Automatic annotation (TrEMBL):
Pseudouridine synthase that catalyzes pseudouridylation of mRNAs and tRNAs. Mediates pseudouridylation of mRNAs with the consensus sequence 5'-GUUCNANNC-3', harboring a stem-loop structure. Constitutes the major pseudouridine synthase acting on mRNAs. Also catalyzes pseudouridylation of some tRNAs, including synthesis of pseudouridine(55) from uracil-55, in the psi GC loop of a subset of tRNAs. Promotes the processing of pri-let-7 microRNAs (pri-miRNAs) independently of its RNA pseudouridylate synthase activity. It is found in: Cytoplasm, Cytosol; Nucleus. It is an enzyme of class 5 (isomerase). This is Pseudouridylate synthase TRUB1. Its main location: cytoplasm. GO terms for biological process: mRNA processing; mRNA pseudouridine synthesis; positive regulation of pre-miRNA processing; tRNA modification. The lineage of its organism: Eukaryota, Metazoa, Chordata, Craniata, Vertebrata.
């Protein structure tokens, strides 16, 4: 979750060349700076009014989809990986817009760029930040920002993955551990500390993820401890063997390692039973994360407009000149940024 250099696919000619924050309605500046997204929305409205049965044309929806640019958040449920969820989002948007289709393959190259910043484990749920269009260039900054989690740990059991999805590797008594014991050690894990990442993680060795090597049964050495930051850490509930933590941390921090280290500090062991990311940067689970039934072109367009005001100035989209487009078929691309510097993956689908 630390900052990483993203390998971003070159922008297409249909990406917006204006900032997402609109000018005041009715002013000359607003009229002159009408964005592609606004123009596309007008096209959709016109199509809806003039169609024989008031249906919105797929071509207008496709134009609007390709004009979207910025950063928003979705609600990731337990089960799918972050990459799988992103692919599901992409497929829903393309299906709604009727893309790709013979109508579009005859046109100049149209590129849909979409990616996420800050991987959530498959067993975790919560806020997943997504960039679309030129918003993919903003994801690197999102990775280094603060994140907040609610984690439920289980004392007395250690697993190879440090969470409930793994195999139990050790069991120790926990019956003498009190709430005061846990609260008394949390200060040791607050502030600027050193942390050893889990073996089951997106970190790589010789170009391959450690988790992949572990699943193959290969011997993997733990990565050295690295500096991380915990801004706040508190115990919300203790009902043995379960304890609930509220954690706000910086990039590169692993909740699984924290819970495991807390278990060791208490002369026992522990693993993560449940994990929810409640906030990433300015995006919160309750206010900003779109559930799957809101993964539509219109809902995302509204979310992009709302979320643009939440971002710091250094992450705001800058104006850029549209690029020349080439005579090629539609390509749909998405970018997945892993949680560590230099560990980024770029996946293309056609």
């Amino acid at each position: 979750m630390a900052a990483t250099e993203a390998a971003v696919v070159p922008s297409s000619s249909l990406e917006t060349d204006t900032a997402l924050v609109p000018e005041t309605a009715g002013t000359p500046a607003a009229t002159a700076a009408t964005s592609p997204a606004t123009a596309a929305a007008a096209a959709v409205t016109a199509a809806a009014r003039t169609g024989p049965d008031a249906r919105v044309s797929k071509a207008a929806l496709a134009t609007k989809l390709l004009s979207l640019s910025g950063v928003f958040a979705v609600h990731k449920p337990k089960g799918p990986t972050s990459a799988e969820l992103l692919n599901r989002l992409k497929e829903k948007l393309l299906a709604e817009a009727g893309m790709p289709s013979p109508e579009w393959t005859k046109r100049k190259k149209q590129t849909l760029k979409i990616g996420h910043g800050g991987t959530l484990d498959s067993a975790a749920r919560g806020v997943l930040v997504v960039g679309i269009g030129r918003g993919t260039k903003m994801l690197t900054g999102m990775l280094s920002g603060s994140k907040r989690y609610i984690a439920i740990g289980e004392l007395g059991k250690a697993t190879d993955t440090l969470d409930s999805t793994g195999k139990v590797t050790e069991e120790k008594p926990y019956d003498k551990i009190t709430q005061e014991d846990i609260e008394g050690i949390l200060q040791k894990f607050t502030g600027n500390i050193m942390q050893v990442p889990p073996l089951y993680s997106a970190l790589k060795k010789d170009g391959q993820r450690l988790s992949t090597l572990m699943k193959r049964g290969e011997v993997v050495e733990a990565k050295p401890a690295r500096p991380v930051t915990v801004y706040s850490l508190s115990l919300q509930k203790f009902q043995p063997p379960f304890f609930t933590l509220d954690v706000e941390c910086g990039g590169g921090f692993y909740i699984r390692s924290l819970v495991s280290d807390i278990g060791k500090e208490l002369s026992s062991c522990a693993n993560v039973l449940e994990l929810t990311r409640t906030k990433q940067g300015p995006f919160t689970l309750e206010e900003h994360a779109l559930p799957e039934d809101k993964w539509t072109i219109d809902d995302i367009a509204q979310s992009l407009e709302h979320c643009s005001s939440l971002l710091p100035a250094e992450l705001a989209l800058k104006k850029s000149k549209p690029e020349e487009s080439n005579e090629q078929v539609l390509s749909c691309e998405y970018i997945t940024l892993s949680e560590t510097k230099g560990e980024d993956d770029v996946i293309k689908t056609y």
